[in-house]
Design brief:
Elements: H1 3-11, H2 27-42, E1 56-60, H3 62-65, E2 74-86, E3 89-99, E4 111-113, E5 116-121, E6 129-133, E7 135-137, E8 140-142, E9 152-161, E10 164-174, E11 181-191, E12 203-205, E13 215-225, E14 228-235, E15 241-247, H4 248-252, E16 260-262, E17 268-270, E18 290-294, E19 299-305, E20 313-318, E21 329-332, E22 341-347, E23 356-363, H5 367-372, E24 380-386, H6 388-391
Antiparallel strand pairs: 1-24, 2-3, 3-4, 3-5, 5-6, 7-8, 9-10, 10-11, 11-12, 13-14, 14-15, 15-16, 16-17, 18-19, 19-20, 20-21, 22-23, 23-24
Length: 394
């Protein structure tokens, strides 16, 4: 079954599940290109004086995965972004998710919804409890963040801003081509009471400005620093990484109408004053990646997967949020059973249990394989330890 037929099946409430995430039309060309580039861009030597990313020793963390496999109804989900909610609570945001009837764990009997959320209690995922949430209508599961007409939402990232929760969403539209979908824009919702359970949240959909650059704002990550909210995003064609910001006053009130973009030598520029897209902070990003500050290193660290054919988790770093950023370097490569897509690599700095906690998503273009193999389509956890002696300046 092709990805486009899978999407039609998902919209009709029958057989899931989409085969890949966040790829623009032209994906076949990009996949072929990544076959050529993946080896030389992931593992490489650095020229004298070039800033290298931090050294990390990493391994798979299966104990952390168990909490996401215990639910009777939630049988797997895509993406996996985390948002610290304060105390020992962590929000998880998932894209397409498989919801069963609670009696059988056979995915062939499950329905797919476009997005779900979960709340983890306990910061160490290997010992935490996770409770999943979605909407229901007429007794059937539906997306937590409802679709709008023919488009639907896959969650990007989220952040607490002065006690309110801001969630960025990727707007996805049907499109011609093999995959049958395209990232067409972005959206956002504001939750007034994130301390309550998700089923009781009071959510407001925000008015957000589109951009002619096709950058999906907030698809990657967002965080508060100083007096601003920063959000990273990528464009759906070249996968360059871009950075926008708002004042905290505007973000907390849900006013995202006047973003400023980092424009390199031009500094921060209001969107309405941009004649063209600014140069990206770095290229060869993915639609989903994370950036966070590591105090022990004194650097910002960006984490992503290499590409759909380069399965390694890779990272790069910078002394400044706006760069320059180092070249990327692989630090964990999962075992490749063949024919698997690996994507949505992310770090989760709000979690405990390791210096660096990451997840990645696994999927397949073979729908029967996804439905029959429960090793796929659950979050894969990786834990890493920084080799601080190797990270000291020479």
């Amino acid at each position: 079954m092709t990805p486009s037929r899978l999407d039609r099946a998902a919209r009709s409430g029958s057989r899931p599940v989409r085969a890949a995430r966040g790829i623009a039309p032209g994906v076949l060309f990009l996949l072929l290109l990544s076959l050529v580039l993946s080896t030389c861009t992931t593992l490489r030597d650095f020229a004298p004086g070039e800033q290298a990313p931090p050294a990390v020793a990493a391994e798979r963390w299966p104990q952390a995965e168990e909490a996401f496999r215990r639910d009777r109804f939630w049988l797997g989900g895509d993406g996996a972004s985390s948002v610290p909610l304060g105390g020992d609570r962590v929000l998880w945001l998932f894209g397409d998710s498989l919801i069963g009837d609670g009696k059988s764990r056979d995915r062939r009997q499950a329905l797919v919804v476009r997005n779900t959320v979960a709340v983890q209690k306990g910061l160490d995922p290997s010992s935490a409890a996770v409770a999943f949430s979605w909407k229901t209508r007429a007794g059937k599961p539906e997306a937590f963040f409802p679709s709008k007409g023919e488009t639907w939402y896959w969650p990007g990232s989220g952040v607490l801003v002065r006690g309110r929760l801001l969630v960025f969403l990727m707007e996805i539209s049907p499109a011609p081509g093999e995959l049958g979908f395209d990232a067409s824009g972005w959206a956002a919702v504001l939750v007034e009471n994130p301390g309550d359970e998700p089923g009781s949240w009071r959510m407001t959909s925000l008015d957000v400005p589109g951009n002619r650059f096709r950058v999906v704002v907030g698809s990657a990550c967002c965080f508060v620093e100083g007096g601003h909210l920063y959000a990273f995003g990528a464009d759906a064609s070249s996968l360059g990484a871009f950075l926008v910001r708002w004042t905290l006053e505007a973000a907390a009130s849900g006013d995202l109408g006047r973003p400023e973009w980092w424009a390199g030598k031009g500094g921060w520029v209001a969107q309405e004053k941009l004649a063209r897209a600014p140069e990206p902070l770095f290229r060869d990003a993915q639609m989903e990646f994370t950036v966070h500050r590591e105090p022990a290193l004194g650097r910002y660290v960006a984490v992503q997967t290499g590409s759909f054919t380069d399965h390694c988790l890779v990272l790069r770093s910078s002394r400044s949020l706006t760069g320059p950023w180092s070249a990327r370097h692989g630090f964990y490569c999962p075992e490749d059973p063949g024919g698997i897509l690996v994507y949505a690599g992310k770090a989760h700095p709000g979690l405990a249990g390791a210096d660096l906690v990451c997840t990645l998503a696994t999927n397949s273009l073979d729908a029967d394989r996804v439905l029959g193999d429960d090793r796929l389509y659950f979050p894969v956890f990786v834990r890493g330890t920084y080799r601080l002696a190797e990270n000291r300046p020479h």
